[in-house]
C-alpha cells in the first residue's frame, strides 16, 4: 500500500493498516461501541456487527489496496481515498473512506465511490 499518512491521526492510520491486512480484531479495537459503518448503501451498527463486516468483506476476492489520497475535513473528520485492483467485478475501484472520530476512536465510517 502506498502511504500518504503523514497528516492522518494515529487512529485512522492504525485502522487502515489493520484493515488492509484483514486484521478485523485490531481494526475493531479502534471503533466506538456504537460505531456505524456504511458500505455502498449497506449499514452496520455496533462494534460486533462491524467486526463481522470487517472480517468478511471482500473475502471472496483477491485484491490489492493502494492509498492514493488523504485529507482532513476538520478535527474529527478525515477522508482517505484508496484504489482497489483485483478479481472483483470491474477489477478496479476508487473508494473514499470517510471517517468521523470521537475520543480517538472511529465513531462512523462511510465507504463510497470516490468523487473527484
How would you describe what is shown here?
The structure is a single chain. This protein is an alpha+beta fold and 116 residues long. It has a single domain, classed as Nuclear Transport Factor 2, Chain: A, CATH 3.10.450. It is 22% helix and 47% strand. It has 3 helices and 6 strands; from the N terminus they run H-H-E-E-H-E-E-E-E. The protein has helices at residues 10-20, 24-28, 47-56; strands spanning 31-39, 42-45, 63-74, 77-86, 92-102, 105-113. Strand 3 and strand 4 form a beta hairpin. The mean pLDDT is 91.
List the helices and strands and how they pair.
Elements: H1 10-20, H2 24-28, E1 31-39, E2 42-45, H3 47-56, E3 63-74, E4 77-86, E5 92-102, E6 105-113
Parallel strand pairs: 1-6
Antiparallel strand pairs: 1-2, 3-4, 4-5, 5-6
Give the H and E element order. HHEEHEEEE
Largest sheet features? 6 strands, mixed
> What class do helices, strands and sheet pairing give?
alpha+beta
The 3D shape can be described as globular
Which percent bin holds the helix content?
10-25%
Which topology does CATH recognise? Nuclear Transport Factor 2, Chain: A
Quick rundown:
Helix content is 22%, strand content 47%. It is an alpha+beta fold and 116 residues long.
Key terms:
116 residues, Nuclear Transport Factor 2, Chain: A, alpha+beta, globular
Amino acid at each position: 500500500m502506498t502511504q500518504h499518512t503523514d497528516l492522518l491521526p494515529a487512529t485512522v492510520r492504525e485502522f487502515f493498516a489493520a484493515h488492509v491486512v484483514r486484521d478485523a480484531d485490531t481494526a475493531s479495537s479502534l471503533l466506538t461501541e456504537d460505531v456505524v459503518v456504511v458500505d455502498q448503501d449497506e449499514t452496520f451498527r455496533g462494534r460486533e456487527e462491524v467486526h463481522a463486516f470487517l472480517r468478511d468483506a471482500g473475502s471472496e476476492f483477491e485484491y490489492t489496496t493502494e492509498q492514493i489520497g488523504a485529507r482532513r475535513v476538520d478535527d474529527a473528520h478525515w477522508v482517505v481515498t484508496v484504489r482497489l485492483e483485483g478479481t472483483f467485478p470491474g477489477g478496479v475501484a476508487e473508494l473514499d473512506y470517510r471517517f468521523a472520530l470521537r475520543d480517538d476512536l472511529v465513531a462512523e465510517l462511510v465507504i463510497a465511490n470516490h468523487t473527484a
